[in-house]
Amino acid sequence: MFTRSAGRAPDQLRPIRITRGYTMHAEGSVLVEFGNTKVLCTASVEERVPPHKRGSGEGWVTAEYGMLPRSTHTRSDREAARGKQSGRTQEIQRLIGRSMRAVFDLKRLGERTIQLDCDVLQADGGTRTAAITGAFVAAQDAVNKLAAEGKLIESPILSPVAAVSVGIVEGTPLLDLEYVEDVGCDTDMNVVMTGKGHYVEVQGTAEGVAFTRAEMDELLRLAEKGIGELIGLQRQALAQ
Amino acid sequence: MFTRSAGRAPDQLRPIRITRGYTMHAEGSVLVEFGNTKVLCTASVEERVPPHKRGSGEGWVTAEYGMLPRSTHTRSDREAARGKQSGRTQEIQRLIGRSMRAVFDLKRLGERTIQLDCDVLQADGGTRTAAITGAFVAAQDAVNKLAAEGKLIESPILSPVAAVSVGIVEGTPLLDLEYVEDVGCDTDMNVVMTGKGHYVEVQGTAEGVAFTRAEMDELLRLAEKGIGELIGLQRQALAQ
Amino acid sequence: MFTRSAGRAPDQLRPIRITRGYTMHAEGSVLVEFGNTKVLCTASVEERVPPHKRGSGEGWVTAEYGMLPRSTHTRSDREAARGKQSGRTQEIQRLIGRSMRAVFDLKRLGERTIQLDCDVLQADGGTRTAAITGAFVAAQDAVNKLAAEGKLIESPILSPVAAVSVGIVEGTPLLDLEYVEDVGCDTDMNVVMTGKGHYVEVQGTAEGVAFTRAEMDELLRLAEKGIGELIGLQRQALAQ
Amino acid sequence: MFTRSAGRAPDQLRPIRITRGYTMHAEGSVLVEFGNTKVLCTASVEERVPPHKRGSGEGWVTAEYGMLPRSTHTRSDREAARGKQSGRTQEIQRLIGRSMRAVFDLKRLGERTIQLDCDVLQADGGTRTAAITGAFVAAQDAVNKLAAEGKLIESPILSPVAAVSVGIVEGTPLLDLEYVEDVGCDTDMNVVMTGKGHYVEVQGTAEGVAFTRAEMDELLRLAEKGIGELIGLQRQALAQ
Amino acid sequence: MFTRSAGRAPDQLRPIRITRGYTMHAEGSVLVEFGNTKVLCTASVEERVPPHKRGSGEGWVTAEYGMLPRSTHTRSDREAARGKQSGRTQEIQRLIGRSMRAVFDLKRLGERTIQLDCDVLQADGGTRTAAITGAFVAAQDAVNKLAAEGKLIESPILSPVAAVSVGIVEGTPLLDLEYVEDVGCDTDMNVVMTGKGHYVEVQGTAEGVAFTRAEMDELLRLAEKGIGELIGLQRQALAQ
Amino acid sequence: MFTRSAGRAPDQLRPIRITRGYTMHAEGSVLVEFGNTKVLCTASVEERVPPHKRGSGEGWVTAEYGMLPRSTHTRSDREAARGKQSGRTQEIQRLIGRSMRAVFDLKRLGERTIQLDCDVLQADGGTRTAAITGAFVAAQDAVNKLAAEGKLIESPILSPVAAVSVGIVEGTPLLDLEYVEDVGCDTDMNVVMTGKGHYVEVQGTAEGVAFTRAEMDELLRLAEKGIGELIGLQRQALAQ
């Protein structure tokens, strides 16, 4: 069986930290840490919507994702300098956006946009799942601010949402992969769930060999456990 | 219960057609039709590899995806004219590439590239799953051509691979969604499986409400049935 | 004298096929075949005009052109992936657009746009002339649809238009060059004419040695013959 | 009959000036003026060739074209700021490059490149034909410099080349259109010919109504006359 | 002590020429020459303002800068072909724009834009300072034209503005560096001043070794002398 | 006289914090804080040089700069999404690069590159000067690491370097402007100096009215005081 660093059990999350109010300008600003993975998630409220929502009475929630060039082991090119976002970046920011919209009632939000920016300061595996988990807290802070200003009748947030990665490394199903585990894994799955234990996204990929139904079931079980804990930690952070 | 067009049963594929040799220049050229969805899949062999594979003794398999501007109900902008591929396009072509590589032994392929181009001539839902299903047949034709030229010792293809979409529409789980079903569905899942019945990719998304484990199980069952049939049809097409 | 494939005479067109209704969404959809050259031409009607026509009471007719990456002998890069259209692509789509506008009364069209998309599925020389010939039929179908919906008082189409290439290969003037002829030709000329036998475009280029006035006269004679036949075939196709 | 400005006859060129050595760094630097149209043509020699000519023993001749933003009546956007060259720009620079290569023996040039830059300082119609006429003189100066340095065995230039526009304005065929004539013309033709009176390029376009064979013949006659005179003026300029 | 070409004294400008009306379309068109450096500066008036000024009652003054590809010793790539302006180009055009706005009262200009285009025909050092010096004259011509048309109540120009480079070469402080001096200098400073002798911009850069306060004082003294002379020459040019 | 926030004296820096080892992957990683301005500066060592230094025996030091979208009061567009870096961004990163190279002996560095990335987490004025001050500390850490690995014979760093902004607000010269001061200032100057008190860069800009020599002298005096203190704080941070 695969041995994890720091004596971590296969079904154990890394130490999680959720720090609200990390920067001062944004309506919501959260530093989320999954072990050494650190992502700054900010929520910005804009009193306008993109063209496809204009006049609809509905708002919009969307996300962008980026990695600082030296958030990784070896420096990667700055996307702004290269002049375009990679396919991976676009895939991740679309995932974060869909995950947030899955728990938002856009009618209740009114014709405004919540823009979530998830910037990876330090990467050690699981940046997209950390981003989703942190972005939800930033979004909740932004919604609370709108509510405090009397701009909302009812909260547009229907449920919390969080995400975690799971995977099979040397035959062992593991929760919350860190970088060295991610590199060596045969199957990698990102799961996004609501506070009610329902699925928002399931994205499983066979990196090496195709995986069986039994393996998928075990991975889903691990993910459910991890997400339950993450949602508890989000609640704690928001209660402070 | 939701009634499908043409009296189709919930667990029934649309009429599938796989036409090999559709165009004359490519090493593999397949027109795949899932009902009204028509995708031209070509496989091109190039005797070189991208930089990250040079000198490795291994080959590479990759894919690009595009839609003709008027393959859809209303014309969409030509990506070449806009100057960039959308996030959706990149997501789909990355999915096709990973799906193909999952059944390829890159060492056996040798230092050459198989480039799969999947271009949608007419869209009616399920273009990405049709593309994967057709691209496999085009790739097999290209491999057969290499083998006939004595360039391969063993076939680099380990298994067939095919894909299908499944989803829940008005509470009914359905196999192989067409466009009107896709637009109205609550949950949408694309599943890629090998000929051995193992998973290569599972991508489930809650479009409206989050979905339960029981719903996911039912969707996976439908997908398994559909992919089994598709792999049979690929075999028939390749036998001709 | 140069011998053509399939015993074709110097002043003979390749077998021409014009298939209407090739795809289902577009207002006009034509597959045009000049021998092995196959171009899908679709006409899309949009109830708006570009900025320079707004409020003018006039419509607009424009074209875009593309080649599928493996429509050619060796795969060419996808323009959407490279992020820009080549000079050749732009030159061809400007030519198609001008050729269509030459037979359109934009006032009679009203403030709407007909967008012609010409996508080469298989290339064997003469793709731009096939595109013009097919695009006219697609445009006529779109106009007929508008007329049937009562949106036009008079037909905005003043005349048919078609195009053919001519060239001098090893001293022999030839009509409708296929790829192997095009590669070896000294002079290459694309001619666009109306149903009345008038010129819309003449583009002659000395590939190797400059050409004489006598050679040009012979090429124009061949082109006139070929275009007369093509306009007859357009009429037949539209009569069905 | 249409009356031209400054009492110009229909078959008369505008005053032509060809100034060599206009700027100091380039191997050839020519300011060419066709009336108020002023184009700076420089020839730069580079001791390398583009990839498709490497190791071929042959050289390359190519051209780029640009307009200063306020060379025109109303300012046009700077292409460098917009981030791409227009289709018109690309079409023109491809035409200039082909015209120059038509009179060059690339083998005799050896593996080096002559890059022609044609920048319009002031536009009043006919910029592309002025550019070709001036670029030839700049290219000849660059070749003379190479010859003086002992780098060439034989001159790679086979013949002079020049270009002129012709057109039909209010029924009158005219030589060398200026801007107000170009705007109002029904047919516009650019002709490029060698010193031997052979055609390199003929590009005729019906702006309004399609043109007849008789009209084309008259335009070609005017062009031949004009180009003969331009080649005489090139010779005079080079003799100084 | 460093010896300058043409026996120029350390505190002496190169021969300066300011030619108004250099091209015919622009509202102001000035060829400015600092020795062999030649920059064409045009001023274009547009009766609209950029979005951030709309409805403000204020106008806008802005600048763009470019170098013709062969204005330099060795040909540099055309920015329009590369698809973007370099950092150096942007830095220079921002500097020219700020320098012009420093002497403009945008309220008096009214809601219109003066666009200055500075294109280097021939470069021999000091192109940005020549551009500022020439652009002011072009701007004044455009303002005079607006005034003559009765479109201005008061002149929006508060003062002339001019610029010069200074630097330390082999220990000697020099005024108005030409290319060979610029290449070898330790410190390079561009100074922009008004007619009242006040500073608009000071940009000093240590190319090799950092410079002392005493050196800066000497450079500022030289710049002040040179700009005084340049403003006199602007006045002379405008008086003609 | 202008009153500063938090009772700050006109010649007083904001509270400065320099935190080394802020992220774990980079060879140097420094969070620098000038009051509420927070910039993460990382130094990455790469064992290769850009083309213009290959084979020279010399290394290279360069910088990139970016702002997180919500580091500012209102969210600004992500440059990676817009597809290009603004002129401001390029100007700043060129300034940082030049400032670092001014204190580096590139021969002693050997053929390797130190890439400095300065990313603004929170902006409150003075981000470029904070970036230079922090980047130096990160660069020193990277050099120390190279030295510890035995890869350097002598330190390539010749002197510390730091930067500060100064400006005139409502007639009062101020050191180290924060955002509200920067917005309202008449003159803004960024000064970069070495540990020996020599100038590397002086960039003064009249935002509103042109400034006098006496004002410049006072600003330079303030800058010298501030930079002296910053270099002391860099030394303290590096001593820990």
TrEMBL record, chains A, B, C, D, E, F:
Task: Name the enzyme group at the top EC level.
Answer: transferase
Q: Which SUPFAM superfamilies match?
A: Ribonuclease PH domain 2-like, Ribosomal protein S5 domain 2-like
E.C. designation(s): 2.7.7.56
Signal peptide boundaries: none
> Could you tell me one molecular function GO term of this UniProt entry?
3'-5'-RNA exonuclease activity
Keyword set, alphabetical order: Nucleotidyltransferase, RNA-binding, rRNA processing, Transferase, tRNA processing, tRNA-binding
Gene Ontology terms describing biological process: rRNA 3'-end processing; rRNA catabolic process; tRNA processing
Region: Disordered; residue ranges are: 68-90
Residues bound to phosphate are: R88, G126, T127, R128
Q: Matching Pfam families, A to Z?
A: RNase_PH, RNase_PH_C
Superkingdom: Bacteria
What reaction gets catalysed by this protein?
tRNA(n+1) + phosphate = tRNA(n) + a ribonucleoside 5'-diphosphate
| Gene3D superfamilies named in the record | GHMP Kinase, N-terminal domain
Q: How does it assemble?
A: Homohexameric ring arranged as a trimer of dimers.
Describe the task this protein carries out: Phosphorolytic 3'-5' exoribonuclease that plays an important role in tRNA 3'-end maturation. Removes nucleotide residues following the 3'-CCA terminus of tRNAs; can also add nucleotides to the ends of RNA molecules by using nucleoside diphosphates as substrates, but this may not be physiologically important. Probably plays a role in initiation of 16S rRNA degradation (leading to ribosome degradation) during starvation.
Q: What is this protein called?
A: Ribonuclease PH
Q: Which organism is it from?
A: Ramlibacter tataouinensis
Lineage summary: Bacteria, Pseudomonadati, Pseudomonadota, Betaproteobacteria, Burkholderiales
